[in-house]
Amino acid sequence: MVETGFNLWEFLEYEFKNKKTEFIPASQTKSVPYSKLIDELFSPKDDDSKDSTEILETVAKLGIKAMLCELEDETKATYKYLSVSGSPYSFEHCPEEVKEAMMGMMAVNDLAESSLAGVTAQVQCYGRIGMHAAAAVSDMSRNKFLCRPTTKKEI
Known about the structure:
Blueprint: H1 8-18, E1 21-24, E2 29-31, H2 33-42, H3 47-71, H4 96-101, H5 110-126, H6 131-142
Helix pairs in contact: 5-6
């Protein structure tokens, strides 16, 4: 795994508890918007928020039913990956030898996508660049090519 120096918990602590933004620009008042949002979400103080709780619960139930209908639709391509399908492609019904054979294997095509993301980033940052060269940036980073130790060769 590549060490990025990024700590999710520190980020969440900063984003939701410490980060301040101007609430009213003219007054120079600052507030922590996410903490206020979460507070209002779980302990509403605003009358409109209190009055909307009942309709929100109704809409949430309808939304969940709609999602379940979509997920359990046998005509959808993803249905076979759900345990309810009984398919060997679902985790519950996958043979143990297949699970063991897949240990340590990549579940996604991140390596291929990484090159495409590298191309996009180079074009966005620099405007124009040869597509063949742009993918090299992410490839070199992923393969740690520039971090490899070197040895001095005798000539």
